[in-house]
Amino acid sequence: MDVAENGVQLAHDASQEPAFLANEEFNQNSPKKKRRRFEHAGETESCKRCNCKKSKCLKLYCECFAAGVYCIEPCSCQECFNKPIHEDTVLATRKQIESRNPLAFAPKVIRSSDSVPELGEESSKTPASARHKRGCNCKKSSCLKKYCECYQGGVGCSISCRCEGCKNAYGRKDGSFIGTEAELDEEEAEACEKSVAEKHQQKIEIQKNEEQRLDSALPTTPLRLSRQMVSLPFSSKNKPPRSSVFSIGGSSSGLYTSQKLGKPNILQPESKFERHSQIVPEDEMPEILQGDGSPSTGVKTASPNSKRVCPPNSDFGPSPGRRTGRKLILQSIPSFPSLTPQH
DNA sequence: GAGTTTGAAACT
DNA sequence: CAGTTTCAAACTC
């Protein structure tokens, strides 16, 4: 039924709406440019976008919407309402969803190196350095495919999962770690590993450095925010920064950021995340975690091929923003900023 | 590329 | 809260 309608009622609240994405209006309704995920081919620029047909991109089914970003050109969605033009609808809908589930837009994968929200106990058992917020409910995939949100996020299953026959390579529900991440790396590890395995194993050092910086700022905050969906490659290509370049858009970071600083952050106790988004100068640092992070550090990724895959949510939640080339780290954006109950 | 499978999200 | 339906991604052919 009408999602839009329902949402509208709340719309007035949207007045606070932050800057969503910068945008103009991109009708990408053209079904022609169907571009699935980054599959194998165009990992370069088209990392991933949604392909919604019925949800109008106003439900969590839509990855863009779920991630808190507007749909942009590469999307192949139809009847998309997840655009700046329909800002109020989007915000209203989000509110509605959040009212139902406050954590709906929170990062699904929570890095719990040290601070585990609630599943603290198992955190010690699970090897993975992160955990899925709600846990999966897989029955047939054995948590070995991307159907599994835990697996997809590169994290192990935890007791919160209700999966059956869990074989999650990143860590099973029962705590038995399959151990060898090596296993992973054969497969798509290439993709994810960059975020996961690699991180855990090789780049520990770098990670430390980085994390110190980032984490220090946000101890508990999921980094998922660091979505670097920048399509900067245009810099030289001169591709018109179609509004869609959400990201650095100056005012908008790509997420529907409502920067109400005083908001009660559910996950983030500290309300002081200013949007000092640390933007990594792309000129200098193309990709931090990417693997090729910095040659100088020497800790580079082990992957022979420097294929940069853009994991949907490598380690931080499904981020539509793939690390295309450079990354913009906005650590400050509240994960589910958008609409916090203003009361 | 079309069709199938899968599990989250949404709905009842 | 549990069962069912809807949905879009992941996957297979």
Helical/strand content category: mainly alpha
- The fraction of residues assigned to DSSP E strands is under 5%
The Rg value, from CA coordinates, equals 19 Å
For the sheet with most strands, the description reads: 2 strands, antiparallel
Counting DSSP E segments of at least 2 residues, the number of strands comes to: 4
The shape, in one word, is elongated
Mean pLDDT: 56
Lateral strand order in the biggest sheet: 1-2
The helix content is 10-25%
Number of helices: 10
For the record, give the distance between the C-alpha atoms at the N and C termini, rounded to a whole number.
29 Å
Q: Note poorly predicted spans.
A: 1-46, 113-129, 178-253, 258-343
Q: How do the SSEs run, as a string of H and E?
A: HHHEHEHHHHHHEE
Keywords: Nucleus
GO molecular function, one term: DNA-binding transcription factor activity
Family: Belongs to the lin-54 family.
InterPro entries: CRC, Tesmin/TSO1-like_CXC, TSO1-like
Protein described:
It is a single chain. With 343 residues, the protein is an all-alpha fold. Among the domains are: 45-107, no CATH class; 126-174, no CATH class. The chain contains 10 helices and 4 strands; from the N terminus they run H-H-H-E-H-E-H-H-H-H-H-H-E-E. It has helices at 3-11, 63-67, 87-100, 120-123, 149-152, 181-186, 189-193, 197-201, 204-217, 234-237, and strands spanning 109-111, 130-132, 278-279, 328-329. The protein has a two-stranded antiparallel sheet. A two-stranded antiparallel sheet has the order 3-4. Helix 1 crosses helix 3 (87-100). It starts with a helix and ends in a 14-residue tail after the last strand. The model is unreliable at 1-46, 113-129, 178-253 and 258-343 (pLDDT under 50). The structure holds a DNA duplex (12 and 13 nucleotides).
